[in-house]
Amino acid sequence: MRLTSPIGFGNQALHHATWPLTRSLGLVLLGLLLAALLAALPPRAHADEDFLVHGQLTYSEQETDGFHSPYAGANSLLPAKGAETVDATLSLGWLLAPRTELWLAPELDQGFGLSNSLGLAGFASGEAYKVGHKRPALRSTRMLLRWNSAGSGDAQEQSDGLASFKQSVSAHRWEITLGKFSVVDVFDNSQYAHDPRNDFLNWSVMDSGTFDYAADAYGYSVGMSIERIDGDVTQRVGVFDLSNIPNSPHLTAGLKQFEVLAESEWRFDTSDNPGRLWVTGFMNRAHMAKLADLLNPMTQVVADPASARQLHDRFGISAGLEKAVNPNLAVFVKAGHADGRFEVYEFTEIDRTLALGLTGTALFPARAADHWGLSVVRNQISAERIAYLQQGGLGILIGDGRLPHPGPEQLAEAFYNVAVGAHWFVTGDVQYVVNPAYNRDRGPVTLWAVRVHGQF
User: Fold this and answer.
1) CA distances to 85, 116, 150, 248, 330 from 375, in Å
2) Domain tally for the chain?
3) In a domain, 6, yes or no
4) 233 pLDDT exceeds 90?
């Protein structure tokens, strides 16, 4: 989640105008220099080298059409606007001992999401954080330690990636990850719809829309996951810090407010056309408002959520299924349900979701390295959340000031990713959203995006 202002946190000034490209040139040039330096590094001579440097640079620009908008509120998506984001990341890894890895990932970010990342429950760009920056901002995205036990069974080759060493691990083992990282690095992790730098951009495609996973406003938390891998079956549990208030950039340290998770994953048909099924459950224990307590039928004015927050538990469950049809085509399904009685704590206002998609390669014989994707999503909210929005309530991402004619938010997304050499990709993306923010009075809206990504 590249994630604007939470309920009770205080809205920032909205940045609705197209972000001038010239303001991002410095960071883009810095990223290109980084890319050139990384590309010039000699290839690893041995699989057991104990230090790795990877990097990435991503630039994206996204615009809305002049869609129907008879009124707008504080959290509305605005028509005929654009926004740009750019980020450059270094990923530094040390193999401290066999099967024990330390990773650090400093990152520079600049730019804003459309309408300051507001106006859609299934927001349109996973490259946009909830907190934007006019100038390049340096921060750390990951500081983690990962350990695999010696285990037993056949040896499996772990791939060399942005946060993993190429090394042999056992088919039956324990894996523990501890530190600062994203919950969705480990949980609800689809190989076809999960990476906004390489595939789908929409939040409710790249992650299950109901998965209110622990994260600061940048999408990261501090915690631990424990996995038991037994051949084709993996069981995972985790515990992570929640924000100090909903959707804040600041975490509550020491698990004073926390999320616990459990996930089961089954892998099947491990031939050339593999498949996976996973089920994820979460519980958030934190001070959050019950939506019914914010409603006043007499005045029709909602209360400030901060005045009604008490310690509550919010539960949710989601499932994902993906299967390769052949080496060039795969299908996926994601579905989820979360308790709609409470304000959403970290992610977005979706209480029920269903997403279907196709993704593939070699659409054109001469372009074997390209890949593409197509998805459709239906997002819904509870009766309590509808009533809250009807009285002018604001959520993490949505709130048009009123909601006289609610309806499910439905969207479709298609992208085509063109490989330019071995390290660079240029993507065209289009999304079509009916009932943005569950509002039948506004839209439909078409969103266009272009993305340039390099990875080394």
Assistant:
1) 23, 24, 40, 30, 12
2) 1
3) no
4) yes
